[in-house]
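Bench notes, afternoon.
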Amino acid sequence: MKRPLLHIVLFLLMLSATTHRAKAQVWPPDKANAWYAQKPWPVGCNYGTSTAINQLEMFQADTFDPQQIDKELGWAQGLGFTSIRVFLHDLLWKEDSAGFLKRLDQFLEIADKHHISVMLVLFDSVWDPYPQPGKQRAPKPYVHNSGWVQSPGAAILNDPAKRRELEPYVKGVVGHFQKDARVFAWDIINEPDNTNHTAYGSKELPNKAAAALELMKLAFGWAREVNPIQPLTSGVWIGTWPDPAKLSATEKFQLENSDIITFHCYGKLDEMTKAVNNLKRYGRPIVCTEYMARPRGSTFDPILGYLKEQHVGAYNWGFVSGKTQTIYPWDTWEKQYTAEPKVWFHDIFRQDGTPFDPAEVQYIRKVTGAKG
């Protein structure tokens, strides 16, 4: 009697393990494409409240600003935007997980009121590698993203044991919103192998790319275990990826483990075209999660129109000029600026809602088909 019972137990354990593995797999291309076909074209921006210098200031209890968010997302709706990309931070979870989830839910409610879905970014390897919770420093005058912080910080990223302690954050946030239609997708980590050489290069980990790759592998696994209805992704961001044999280890993992393909391109139309054509080889939906840097030739006209023609999602960087100061270019970390640039680097609106370039706003509304 014991032997058949043992066989049954072993069979059930094997079945459970098989089911678990099945949940942890990347979506088949057919599933990803069917999901994308049911969504409106994802067009919008990387959004941070103009009153926040970084992810922490945007979502911490003392500085969370729903009234400002509501006003600004009303402007986004007026442009015909259907989606925004928003950065979170592991310290928000560590310091106040219940309050953070409540505020994030409120944020999603405001976005949904304006018919805007949200791509949520869990980790970010760009800018300051030493984040601290609480009151954030004031912007450094005329400097692009002078207060933006990485998630996780270098101390956690460099320690394999501490990296694993991020599991409750990933599973807690993804799990809480795993069936929430207001969430468009989960961007697991932004530019994981970015060494920020012009801004924080001397303070970065020498093994950052390898450490970030290990975190990315863990985080994808944790999110897969939750089995959300939304796709997982992490965007490639260097070059146009013409040769699969020449991909870095990070790029290879990103492209092989993303349900939808995401990428960044701050180049002119010819570079954007190359990137899109090269990424079509994966047979999945494609979304450009960062573009638009006017002085570099990455402009709404003609790039936004091209992305719509290709049915490629489009999130430009920046929206309302504010404490991140992304109207200033990246080279403000190396050169001294003393006034607002004649041509803004990023962003669309001033804080009073007037556009930097009215003709540009008219073009965006024409491409999106905005009404009213």
